[in-house]
Amino acid sequence: MFRVYGTLIETAAAGVFIVPVFALGNKLLFRSRRHTAYYVLFGLYLAAVCGLVGFPNLLTLRFSPNVNWIPLRYMINDLRNAGLNVLLFLPFGVMLPMLWPVFRSGKRTVWAGLAASGIIETAQLFTHRATDVDDLITNTLGAVMGYWLAKLVTKGFSRYAVRESSPRDLAAICIAVVLIMFFLQPFVSNALWELVL
User: Fold this and answer.
1) Residues contacting 37, CB < 8 A, separation 6+
2) What does the domain layout of the chain look like in residue ranges?
3) pTM of the model
4) DSSP string spanning 106-158?
5) Which of 49, 57, 90, 129 could form a disulfide with 124 if both were Cys (CB 3.0 to 4.6 A apart)?
């Protein structure tokens, strides 16, 4: 329960910056209030993922490699963690094709899930967390399952999907969230933790 509570605080701290930055982005880049609302939701999801996985930030950055390159080495003994990793990336697989038509191809969503997970695992080299090939596998599996769930529920993305979203917007969102989580969020997060403890 503490982990969920902590993630809410970390996400709220990021939201302090994500909401105004994306509102400004609406004027400069997105040009659609509807898109901006969805993009804020996606940005908050990415911030929550970063908070859960222990994404490095300016205050905690340190090179501390702890790497497992052997697939399934720990997964069998820790099925709960494997299941949580799948669930963590399920929304990624749902949101990506719903927001950006270019990801309505399953192959592109798989590659995006693999790339996002790879970035997270590489970033964990600079934290106290382990970089694990099993996490790469389970996160990607979660993105694939999310993609098929979205495709099934929306009847092949013909309903409930956002039209005319630019892949450029996705790049802007990801860069903004990473910069916010690395440079700004830790300071607000520390202040929020002091308030609640």
Assistant:
1) none
2) 2-196
3) 0.94
4) HHHHHHHHHHHHHHHHHHGGGSSSPEEHHHHHHHHHHHHHHHHHHHHHTTTTT
5) 129
Burial 119-145 (b: 16+ CB within 10 A, else e): ebbebbbbbebbbbbbbbbbbbbbbbb
**What is the rounded average pLDDT of the residues 13-38?**
87
DSSP designation for 8 = H
| Per-residue pLDDT tens digits for 123-165 | 999 998 889 999 999 999 999 999 999 999 988 888 778 877 8
| Phi, psi torsion values for 68, nearest 5 degrees | -115, 110
Task: Provide the CA 112 distance to its chain's centre, in angstroms.
Answer: 11
Between CA 12 and CA 48 the distance in angstroms is 9
What pLDDT does residue 1 have? 66
Say which amino acid occupies 58: L
166: pLDDT strictly greater than 80: yes
Alpha-carbon Rg for the chain, nearest whole angstrom, is 17
Closest CA to 29 of 193, 146, 168: 168
Q: Using 50, 70 and 90 to split pLDDT, how confident is the model at 49? A: very high
